[in-house]
Structures
1.
Amino acid sequence: MSTPTMDDAAKVLADPTAYADDARLHTALTHLRANNPVAWVDNPPYRPFWAITKHADIMAIERDNELFISEPRPLLSTAAADDYAKAQLDAGMGLRTLIHMDDPHHRKVRAIGSDWFRPKAMRDLKVRVDELAKRYVDQMRDMGPECDFVTDVAVQFPLYVIMSLLGLPEEDYGRMHMLTQEMFGGDDDEYKRGTTPEEQMAVLLDFFGYFAQLTAARREKPTGDLASAIANGRIDGEPMSEVDTMSYYVIVAAAGHDTTKDAISGGLHALIENPGELDRLRADPSLMGTAVEEMIRWSTPVKEFMRTATADTTVRGVDIAKGDSVYLAYVSGNRDEEIFDDPFRFDVGRDPNKHVAFGYGVHFCLGAALARMEMNSLFTELVSRWDSIELAGTPELSATTFVGGLKHLPIRYSLR
């Protein structure tokens, strides 16, 4: 096997603060794509891994889900957090969501909620989503002429949609959002509950405590919502395990709104920073579909997933040993010069747009259609009603190696 090549630029991938600094992150990723697209990263407190920064390599690894599997390291976390998570799972606790699983178990668990996100379900939901989009734009107008778009709108709209789909009471929405911030914001000073794995595990236990009560209620009396489908889900004729059941709720409730929040806020920021593209979209609303895809590419809420090689192999001529971890840098893949014409240009009409923001292959995002529909509804309402919009302060990105985006976007606007 070849000796791993060290490249200081790749260390940013194992530095949560780098994701709060677009210029720093993209400078490093541009260098890696050109000079070291399969880069060895050894940056404690994280265990070493190979950083995969080219779109084609990311896609190839995603496609080969037998050679590259999710377990035991589906995402980047510290060695201490990895060890603690494994110990918890060995003890029958911890988190094991769809992103942690491999086929055939992954496919069976995924099927429990998949009908809720199919095209027919989205068509049935669209009227309600359009109504909610109008409600939140009305609220935005009424609170004007300034707001923090992230906390006042981008969080609230998708949170309401996914909580309604689950069938949770509205008074619990705020609690779900707070726990989501603490879980995905474990590296961010504004959001994290603590610094140790035990303190961060407490967030998960709060989630589990809530959903354990919900499961008992939905098993006793199903109510025809997504929470009831999860509570009564069966694998090979047997009830889903408690770990898998609790974890299913967590991934739907948390990722089901937080990633969309990041794409919505990142999309609005891009429109403000590119007024020509905003004018183009206002003049031609038929571009909304491609505009939404471009917002998703531009913001890339899920920064990475990781896979582990099940056998010795090579990627772009670099030897990858059995048991080695590879880091799929979606942020880099979505700015790959070989795939995207002028990738650092925000283009509401970009077509084709082969972004990897939703992943690819068997782990393609379960809620992708819902996220697209929510964004289409909200921006259709927004673009048709604003007379002016500009920044009213400095946008702030969250520090994270996994899921994140803007945490504050102060804007000044006029809405009809």
Note: The CA atoms of residues 55 and 336 lie 6 Å apart.
2.
Amino acid sequence: MLQQNKIRITSASLGILTAIGGFLDIGDIVTDGVVGSRFGLSLAWVVPVGVVGIILFAEMSGRVVACSGRATFEIIRERLGPRVGGLNLLASLAVTGLTLTAELGGIALVLQLVSGVAPFLWIPVAAFGVWIILWRAKYSAMENVTGLLGLFLMVFAVVFFLLRPAPELAGDLVPAVPQDETVPTYWYYAIALFGAAMTPYEVFFFSSGGVEERWGARDLRRMRLNVFVGFPLGGLGALAIMGVTAVAFQPMSVEVDSLSALMLPVAQAGGLVAVGFALVGILAATTGAALETALSTGYALAQYAGWSWGASRPPREAARFHVTIGVFILIAAAILATGVDPIAVTEYSVVFSAVALPLTYLPILVVANDPEYMGDQVNGRVTNFFGLIFLGVVLVASAAAIPLMIATGAGR
């Protein structure tokens, strides 16, 4: 019994680390850096809003899995029908594929910083590395190693205090549009931050992992521990990155437009050791997110089509699932091979995540209130209260994202 409890505690702890790594992917890192350098901390309020939103979304998804044993896209097809569910699938695959492209580009950019070799040459290495890990590594090892190394990103919290931020910086926490920015640009980046925090692939991966690990009612406490501890810690990391760039760049009106620029204050405050920690953390976070997004493409299509699926299943038992993953990795690498800027891909991916978010959030909210699936674990009044509030937030963000992107030239 003692050994069994030890295994459960270890599993829960590593699940928390995975949540941290999943929250701080390349989209969050880049967006937090850009926002901090341009807006200071005047948009910091969006991060806790996004954290509460992803906690709500992930907890409902995990509870649906634990109670019904059904994966996200199985339920979406069943509840929405094959036609509407198919449109949902196409939109979700497009956004997840774009996010996968951004993550592969992020890996290439980190490897460029380490080696000095152009990121274009690292793209096939990044794509092959992600594919071979998915092909050969165990599911648990893949989760836990990237999640543990992703903790290195917490070096930004140390750097923030080493930079000795002025007391006046606390005044920026009050939401306000800076004098040199426009209202549409301010809200464009608010939606980008929100989209970075609530990317749909996180929930696809989280819920599908629950099916693979055969969650039941006994696992609800462990699932909630992962959600309620992991995502807030990831949010603190996001605020730390924003704070570092706000202290280092915002007073000089210098915008962070690359990962190398993000490393400058890290090097200034903590030297090469801090830079090493930051690079390892970013590489782990982007690699973990690339693995999760690649798996999510296979999960979504296989669950909708009724194919055999699972990261723990060998290719001979789930051939179409693994082929789907390989095809999406190749497509992502081909897009990057055209010379497109990975940072630009990242910025667009978080905005389109906000656009597509209602397509998965609404069905999960509906199913979480259905006793046929949930039994006595349906949403309570408090969960539904916040669930409906966030449904409104998600719908407004989705409707406003594209018009604001056009009006502001993608925040330029």
Note: Residues 184 and 404 are 6 Å apart (CA to CA).
3.
Amino acid sequence: MYPSSQVELRPWSAMQISALVVVNIIWWMVMLAAIGFGVKYLSQCTVQPFIPIYLVVLGASSLLTMSLTYSSRIWDDGFVGVLIIACMMLLHLFGFAWFIAGTAWVYPIYPPNYTPGVTPYCHKTAYLFAFVITTLVWAIFIFMFVCGCCCGLLTCCSYVTARDRLIPFRNSFYGATSNFREPTAGDV
């Protein structure tokens, strides 16, 4: 028997590790680009000046969250581990709230005026990058929600169909193999 802190997990395959590394590298590059676009076009979105700030803060908070996630694997015990997990939880809550705020800033002005001399306008690269990132994250959220609902539904269905096999006959001893049934009041 293993103690509760030592759970034996199935090792990851090389394909799973490779896919995780590739997705992490891509997300790091996208978040660094978000910071770069946000800083570069900070004053070039007069129709909604929070869009470049949204990109900078989204990128910085995502990179900090990922760094803390990697660090939590190193210090998984003690005060430092608890502190890292608490910071990660706060960053996830902040990131979700910031993402909702960014959604409220990006979508209502679609499509903005992209001409720099005419006010109000928003730089095309900054706006489209924010729009694509926000839409992509919403699509991932919806996909994960649908997959979670399908898994939950499949689990419920398999439980319901297996229930008849798992619940023994009421008048028998659990695990008995005999077909013996105790007589009831109606039997003569």
Note: Residues 124-166 form the longest helix (43 residues).
